[in-house]
Specification:
The complex is a heterodimer of chains A (497) and B (230).
Chain A: H1 16-38, H2 44-68, E1 71-77, E2 80-86, H3 88-114, H4 119-141, H5 145-164, H6 169-200, H7 205-211, H8 216-232, H9 242-248, H10 251-276, H11 281-304, H12 308-324, H13 326-330, H14 335-370, H15 381-384, H16 386-400, H17 406-420, H18 424-448, H19 463-481, H20 484-490
Antiparallel strand pairs in A: 1-2
Chain B: H1 6-29, H2 33-53, H3 57-79, H4 101-122, H5 129-156, H6 160-182, H7 186-217
Helix pairs in contact in B: 1-2, 1-5, 2-3, 2-6, 3-7, 4-5, 5-6, 6-7
Classes of the chains: A mainly alpha (497), B mainly alpha (230).
């Protein structure tokens, strides 16, 4: 009935060599992180070289799966069976994750050195980033609710701990709020999962999709699951914790968090809805409505933001809103509309992840070299710091959805899906959101190109930091040009009949 | 437990359930923090006994070590037991006002959804509410009550340590409901095990945060008002 059907096919088990590669990708970053706890890297090249095997393994896995089609694996722990499933979507998310993580790790080496962070907390950055990577990888490949739970919690706890590293009172208070929300969110998730287990007696997604029937219990369970995940994904109106957390966190941590961590909750949400609530059109419209409000409200908040990091963080709230449009466009619509929306959603997710990470890095470079964190204090930076501003501009192109970026292609696909599905409301949201995005991003340039500025002294940053940011921003642009290849991989898509 | 006669086992279960409820209540309403933490440790020990009673000795052992011992340790660490900077003995912060729709409506909806779903799970079409309640069993009912208590504590209290306690109590309530609605399945035990580990790490992180925040600027709550700022 759907792509998960491959799970029954013996011939499509992971081969031993692929198993080894998957294990390397899941646990390699964590091991590297533990090594780095005791031997923190001092040069960017070292970090990049150490991460190379993981990147190579990811590349090989992507190439193999792209050629040979989806694979699955099951892991038996006593009577318990965990199911993992690698399809086009999973490997693309893996590739995205490892790219952003590697860029952030390399950036972080320069950041720790230039910002003169205290060495003890800075060393903890590495194992926590590694744990985050393991959690994310597990989430992308998990095909049962238990694996998803483990991945979600591993990722969530590491993310909270990363936010606490700066150790200042503001960071700790924001982190405490994040911790409480994340913990309660995961309890809501757990309650939903236990209801599903009680009702249908199994946790594997393929089995649940086969046996679960729409009914009151399934609806309530999905509602509880969704509430937990929406809180963790900081979807409007549960977004209040996001901006304070980003305002206080270190830049590479913010980059990874905005690019990947909050997306993980969204990905799980979408997967579960397509499997368990394929007919719930009204609820899907509700989620789409929340997304629309997030686009507008996030845009307005970003427009009014005074701080640089604040602007980028609120922009994340708004951009996540576009992703929520996937629900009304995918659920209960015709095959053609859903196909367009499916591609548009994932392309938007990838484009936003790359661009947002790049933008956080650019902002980090600006803040670090000027020593100022307010928008109005950026006057005169255009002459002295052209490279971070260039990166910011390139990332802005993707976020605004100008051609030829991934953002443009994604919004184009979503727009087409909305027109074909005759869901006119979302067209208005897309147009308004784009205008708002342009409005708040151009504020940045208005201030930075102000030439009547006092002559400030700037701190010099290692070139590699800006290069990493540039790489990600260019990747976001290039993704729009070569979107055919990933979209082709996405095509045999899971979840729908 | 097979050696016990049926009636005795049932009576034991009811007693355990009532004791659990009592301890949860004691832990959440007490403003004297050390006593509240002690109540929580008792609550966790009772939880371990409950797992034993439900024929999950593994979970009982894990609950005793992670839930009672280590979480208890982290709570007393947060209190500053034996350290120089101790948290004030009594929580004097006023409770959060029940004004915000967001702070009360969401937990209430949450609780009603949990209760309705667990009732629906045992309820075939046509059974009466009283019959469904009887099938659900004392532990699940107490689990639901504890979830309600935990949510109330989490929303109402502003002292961070008490919110952490409320989170732990809430989690235990969910584990009880999970164990009752999903039965003795291995998946249910694995979920509870993961949940216990997560709760422990969450408590450890939370406890060290509470401690650091207090030492840094005497902050005891997140909201505005005494000892905290938004």
């Amino acid at each position: 009935m759907n792509a998960l059907a491959v799970l029954g096919d013996e011939a499509l088990h992971l081969t031993p060599s692929l198993w080894a590669v998957v294990w390397l990708i899941v646990w390699g970053p964590l091991l590297l992180g533990l090594v780095a706890l005791y031997f923190p890297p001092h040069r960017m090249l070292t970090a990049a070289a150490a991460y190379l095997p993981v990147m190579a393994a990811t590349g090989w896995l992507v190439a193999t799966i792209a050629v040979s089609g989806p694979r699955h694996a099951s892991l038996s722990l006593g009577e318990l069976t965990l199911t993992w499933y690698l399809d086009g979507l999973a490997i693309l998310l893996l590739l995205l994750t490892q790219t952003v993580l590697m860029a952030s790790a390399v950036f972080a080496v320069g950041y720790c050195r230039t910002a003169e962070l205290p060495s003890r907390p800075a060393a903890w950055l590495w194992p926590l980033l590694g744990g985050l990577s393991s959690g994310l990888t597990l989430i992308w490949i998990a095909a049962d609710l238990l694996s998803l739970y483990v991945g979600l919690e591993l990722m969530g706890l590491c993310a909270v701990a990363l936010m606490l590293l700066p150790g200042e009172a503001e960071a700790l208070a924001a982190g405490m709020r994040y911790l409480l929300y994340a913990l309660v969110g995961s309890l809501a998730w757990l309650l939903g999962v236990s209801l599903l287990l009680g009702a249908w007696g199994r946790l594997d997604l393929a089995g649940l999709a086969a046996v679960a029937e729409p009914g009151a219990v399934t609806t309530l369970a999905v509602a509880l699951l969704s509430a937990g995940l929406l809180l963790k994904a900081s979807i409007f109106p549960l977004h209040a914790w996001l901006a304070p957390v980003h305002g206080a966190a270190w830049i590479p941590v913010s980059a990874v968090h905005a690019a990947l961590v909050i997306k993980a909750s969204f990905v799980i949400l979408l997967k579960l809805w397509l499997l368990l609530a394929p007919g719930q059109m009204a609820a899907a419209w509700l989620l789409g409505g929340l997304g629309s409000l997030a686009v507008l409200w996030g845009g307005i908040l970003a427009w009014r933001a005074q701080g640089l990091k604040e602007l980028v963080a609120f922009s994340t709230v708004g951009q996540l809103g576009y992703l929520m449009l996937a629900f009304p466009l995918l659920i209960g619509t015709s095959e053609a509309v859903a196909a367009l929306a499916w591609r548009g959603t994932w392309l938007h997710l990838a484009g936003h992840a790359l661009a947002k990470a790049a933008m956080f890095m650019a902002v980090g470079s600006l803040v670090l070299s000027t020593g100022r964190s307010k928008l109005v204090e950026l006057a005169g930076t255009s002459r002295r710091l052209p490279l971070p501003l260039l990166v910011f501009g390139l990332a802005a192109v993707t976020l605004m959805g100008l051609p030829p970026s991934a953002g443009f292609t994604a919004k184009w696909l979503l727009l087409q899906a909305a027109i074909r599905g005759e869901q006119w409301l979302w067209i208005g949201v897309l147009v308004l959101g784009t205008m708002l995005t342009a409005a708040y991003l151009f504020r940045m340039f208005r201030h930075s190109f102000d030439e009547q500025a006092p002559h400030l002294t700037y701190r010099r940053l290692p070139l590699g930091m800006d290069m990493m940011a540039l790489l990600l921003a260019l990747a976001a642009l290039a993704l729009g040009l070569v979107a055919d290849w990933p979209l082709e991989l996405l095509w045999p898509w899971g979840g729908r009949t | 437990m097979a050696i016990l006669p049926e009636a005795l086992a049932a009576a034991l279960e009811v007693m355990l359930a009532l004791l659990l409820l009592l301890m949860a209540l004691a832990c959440l309403v007490d403003r004297y923090l050390r006593r509240a933490c002690r109540s929580f440790v008792c609550f966790a020990v009772l939880m371990a006994l409950t797992w034993w009673q439900l024929r999950a000795p593994w979970l009982a052992a894990v609950e005793a070590v992670l839930g009672a011992l280590l979480t208890g340790f982290s709570l007393f660490f947060a209190l500053g037991f034996g350290a120089h900077h101790r948290l004030p003995r009594r929580d004097t912060l006023p409770g959060a006002s029940p004004s915000g729709v967001r702070s009360w409506l969401l937990p209430l909806t949450w609780w009603f959804m949990a209760a309705a779903a667990s009732l629906l799970l045992v309820d075939d079409v046509g059974t009466r509410l009283s019959e469904a309640l009887a099938v659900l069993g004392p532990l699940a009912l107490v689990g639901l009550a504890i979830i309600g208590l935990g949510l109330w504590g989490f929303v109402r209290h502003r002292h961070l340590l008490r919110r952490l306690l409320a989170f732990n109590v809430l989690g235990s309530g969910i584990f009880l409901v999970l164990a009752e609605v999903a039965g003795p399945r291995i998946e249910a035990q694995a979920l509870i095990l993961t949940g216990l580990i997560v709760a422990l790490f969450g408590s450890l992180l939370g406890a060290s945060l509470i401690r650091r925040l207090f030492i840094l600027d005497g902050r005891l709550a997140l909201g505005s008002g005494t000892g905290g700022k938004e």
